[in-house]
Amino acid sequence: MKAASSPPTLRTTASGLPGRAVLFRLRLLIAVCALACTWALAQPPQRLIDYAAAVGVHPEDPRIPNVGTPRFGGVFTYAHNETLASLDAHKSAAATTVTLNIHFAEGLFALDATGTSRPDLVDSYTVSDDGTVYTFSLRQGVPFHNGEILGAADVVASLQRWFGGTLGSQAARYISELNVVDQYTVEMVLTEPYPFIIYQLTVPQTSGAYIYPRSQIEAVGDGTIDTPIATGPYYVADVREGDYVRLVRFDDYVGRVEPPSGFAGGRVAYLDEIIIQTVPDAIVRMAGVETGQFDKAHNATNDMYSLYANRPDIRPRIAMGSFATAQFNKRQGPMTDQRLRLAFNYAIDVRQIVAAAGPPEFTEANSSLAPRDDPWYTPVGEEVYLGYDPEYARALLAEAGYNGEPIRWLVDPSVASYYTSAQVAVPMLEAVGFNIQLVPMDAATLRTMRNDETAYEVYAQGLGWRADPAALTNLSDSNPGWWVTEEKTRILEAMRLEQDFDKRYALWEELHAHMYDYMPAVKFETFGSLSLERAAYSGAFQAWAYVDFINTWLND
Amino acid sequence: MSVYLLRRLVALLPVLAVVGLVGFSLVHLAPGDPAATLVGDDASEEVLQQMRERLGLDRPLGTQFFTWVGNAITGNLGTSLYTGRQVLPSIVSRLEPTLMLTAMSLVVALLNGVVAGAASAIYRNTVLDQAVLVVSLFAAAMPSFWLGINLILLFSVTLRLFPVAGYVPLSQGLLGTVHSLMLPALALGLSQAAIITRMTRTTMLEVLGLDFVRTAKAKGLRQRSVIFRHALRNALVSIVTVVGVAVTVLLSGSIVVESVFGLPGLGRMMIEAVQRRDYPVIQGMLVFVAGVNVIVNLVVDILYVFIDPRIEYV
Q1: Strand ranges inside A84-184, DSSP E
Q2: Does the predicted interface ipTM exceed a cut of 0.85?
Q3: Which residue of A has its CA nearest to B275?
């Protein structure tokens, strides 16, 4: 027979207070509840989980290490060598500004994996028959980090502010009007047909056309925005000058639903936080990856590659796409003579320069301005690039009547890629009769002196490959050294007006043929930079000098 | 004393004025254009010129100087050409890591330097003295960045005891700050400790040979009392002078160590400003560092009075 049970009572001590065991259980219960609440609060909203499922992951691409299954959570720390100048992409052309804006801001268009512009904040757009009126319909219901909803007025305010920047000013000369048609429609009127404008509106770019809310732009006036508000999957939570920037996932983010492709398509913020920390010393950045303090280290020194080539826990990544050049002064002095420029080229055995520049994984003898694995690569001009012929160089010097005038070559010794090239080239040039004077100086001085046509005959310039060749810096007339020819202008204008890839590629080959005939500069090696990262993270897309931690997750 | 202090503080003004003028001249005489750095390699000459105008760099140098002086008198050291932030608040925001690093390095230097120096003097010409000599010469000869990297490899990478880089601000707890600064403080403090060791040893040896020490010993005072109450106190004047120099060296010498350990301090701010030709930041920093140097020297002079009552200022 079951005994009658008495009602439960709280066990108390003689003083009437709860006993030790009861207090312990209460504390345990509170702790468990607190942990559960913390866990629940740390979880992304169901809406983001559904969005991630709909978007999927990056398709297979050698530029993306896809390891493991996507999962939310974790803090990702990226050690960068540069101190952040500013987060304001309309004002700063620094690499860190661009890298950070990729994560918290968006533009009208974004670069996909092939380097093509794809709509981002734009839902769709039309171009008038005469090619001068662009009408952009924006995605609706896209919130800024401050809760405002993206509208046409924000786009107009942002682009007008961007016009004052480096790249924006180049685009602005083609734009006569920028109008708000309705809440979600912007009309852009051009002075002449210029399809390349879409590429210029595409992010990421140096000094990019990112969209910030009009309210913030009006509030800051002519000043710099310290903490930009935007529409990206992360928001800027914390900026410590000279130290780090902390980005936190924006739970109300509304993104595109297409599969990810490059910097375009669906953008899922798997990581809870991204911290970009400034660490100037390469060895310390490497040590941070070793200890797990950093998940990725920017710009390791290339000689570290052999240490990490076969490590299971740390992944070395090489990004090819920069190239070293010797730019000639074509406004004044002996190098205005094309025969001297050609003699300079034929006097140099570029294979020796490539061999001296670094391990074979990082350097290649490549005549094209594009890397070998890029769709824009062309072998046109290779026979001149590799055409080492000291006898011919001597004959050209004699024909030009060169009688030993000094050739001042400005170079920044802190950049090994340019300095090594110059050091290896000088004895070869002297062997054919050139009188070379290497003039070492720091980067800031070189940037100033190269604008002075009386100060040099040659200067070292390193250039980065872009997704579109028509945007290459050293192709502009104003690039110091001043390559100004009708042929170059004709080809570049045709490339900017043409949209068909095959026709543009044919023009690109024409440009290479003209370049190796006119010889505005001598191209040395194409080189890559090394970054080190923990093998336990996946998905980051890295191309054209930019890296994107959206659609990236941690596996541990 | 107060008249003396007032006189020294008033003397600060011409020092700052000269530093301001010389700093301005040097910065503007050096080649390099901040506008070119700011607009990047993609910019056309037209954009570069627009940037120069926007930053006021196209105005005559005299106008730029007097504008800067006028603003500096009101406490406005200008705006960074690169970050767009006010210079003075930027300096203040970067002050904490440098001051904390200086303080911790000084503790490392003093603890090691005074103890080792005094021990070396007391046990002169023994194995201990020779060992201290070798270690201190080694520490003084080691470049702080090299020592820093080796400390990272040993204590961070191998033993995993300290972070490789970064700074934990005081607002997040003193313990975290001390933990984050332990390796940079060692890297910076050990070389200063070596100098203090040698100075303490030499001064102590001089003092230990003086008549009053012999008298104190003859009176039957204990060895500890003779050394700490009499000898060391008399040696302190020279030691404090060296420490004063060490503070200024640590404040400016932390440029390299701050870069190695990724600390967001004044040293890194200075070197970055020079690399970018960020004129207002360089000028502001020069004036600030000059002011700090003058004040540190003043503090050292005042400390003399407390250490040695025979010294007085009129």
Answers
A1: 109-111, 117-119, 122-127, 133-138, 175-182
A2: no
A3: A444
